[in-house]
Amino acid sequence: CFRGHGRRTGERRRKSVRGCIVSPDLSVLNLVIVKKGEHELPGLTDTEKPRMRGPKRASKIRKLFNLKKEDDVRTYVNTYRRKFTNKKGKEVSKAPKIQRLVTPLTLQRKRSRIADKKKRIAKAASDAAEYQKLLASRLKEQRDRRSESLAKKRSRLSSAAAKPAVTA
């Protein structure tokens, strides 16, 4: 119902229908049958069509059929399994692939992922420790070299200071 708002160009007009005459410029009407009359509407209320698609996600299937976590979801998907004949004339059935289904394979993948992560963390820690050890040894070597060079310098200076006193 566009009361206060204008429609964009090319946008279809939407009207609420309550037993009123609908303008002919509408191509599609979405209606809901509220009360059933004495006669059947041909092609609408005389045949019953089952809903083709159900939920695909495991948790939503559980919610629909009021299942516990332990119950097997796969058996309930068969309620909306489609049976049809293929081009070769063979009778086949199709059901949606359930997503987020906890299977032994998914649990195994999860375990391996966690194990890999732990392995990576341990390797990083050992590498860091090794690097710290290397760094400490290099710093020690540098300190030793510096102290040696300073000692040489001191000895040179002391010997240079002592020599003029000997000659005098």
From TrEMBL:
<keyword id="KW-0689">Ribosomal protein</keyword>
<dbReference type="GO" id="GO:1990904">
    <property type="term" value="C:ribonucleoprotein complex"/>
</dbReference>
<dbReference type="GO" id="GO:0003735">
    <property type="term" value="F:structural constituent of ribosome"/>
</dbReference>
<keyword id="KW-0175">Coiled coil</keyword>
<feature type="region of interest" description="Disordered">
    <location>
        <begin position="137"/>
        <end position="168"/>
    </location>
</feature>
<protein>
    <submittedName>
        <fullName>40S ribosomal protein S6-2</fullName>
    </submittedName>
</protein>
<keyword id="KW-0687">Ribonucleoprotein</keyword>
<feature type="coiled-coil region">
    <location>
        <begin position="107"/>
        <end position="134"/>
    </location>
</feature>
<keyword id="KW-0597">Phosphoprotein</keyword>
<dbReference type="GO" id="GO:0005840">
    <property type="term" value="C:ribosome"/>
</dbReference>
<dbReference type="InterPro" id="IPR001377">
    <property type="entry name" value="Ribosomal_eS6"/>
</dbReference>
<dbReference type="GO" id="GO:0003729">
    <property type="term" value="F:mRNA binding"/>
</dbReference>
<comment type="similarity">
    <text>Belongs to the eukaryotic ribosomal protein eS6 family.</text>
</comment>
<dbReference type="Pfam" id="PF01092">
    <property type="entry name" value="Ribosomal_S6e"/>
</dbReference>
<feature type="compositionally biased region" description="Basic and acidic residues">
    <location>
        <begin position="138"/>
        <end position="151"/>
    </location>
</feature>
<dbReference type="GO" id="GO:0006412">
    <property type="term" value="P:translation"/>
</dbReference>
<feature type="compositionally biased region" description="Low complexity">
    <location>
        <begin position="157"/>
        <end position="168"/>
    </location>
</feature>
<comment type="function">
    <text>Component of the 40S small ribosomal subunit. Plays an important role in controlling cell growth and proliferation through the selective translation of particular classes of mRNA.</text>
</comment>
